[in-house]
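User: quick one, fold this
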Amino acid sequence: MTEIESKHGIVSRQPFELFMTFTDLRNFVNMLPEDKKSMVTADYDTLTANYNGMSIGVKIHARNPYSSIEFVDYGAPFAFHIVLYFDPVSYDPAKTDFHIKLEAELNFMLKMMLGGKLKDVLDKIVDGLVDVSNGKMPEGFDPSQYGM
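Assistant:
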């Protein structure tokens, strides 16, 4: 079992705000650029993405109100478990200490291909959420697509 934990990031939102955003997987599809939406389908509990002929799905395994959300594989080519953590920041109740933990059963080939990249991906997700919460839009993001 491969275990990877992202770095921690301080997000300028309260834990319940982040929890409520991540608890409904349809929100992820709404945040995608228009040209990517056709590659992803979601309902309240599940999300499936198709990329380069490969389908990877996740489903919510557990919702622990305002502190964490657990995901498991759902039609993915390997077993995994992801937990998003929303910890309160003691010095500022308007902020959240956000981090991600991933456990995956990767065979040797997948471990060689993905092993080092997975931590980078998790860290980029944390960085992106921190940036967006501070008003910095991701590179290539066009707010006019969303009526902003």
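User: anything notable?
Assistant: The longest strand covers residues 92-104.
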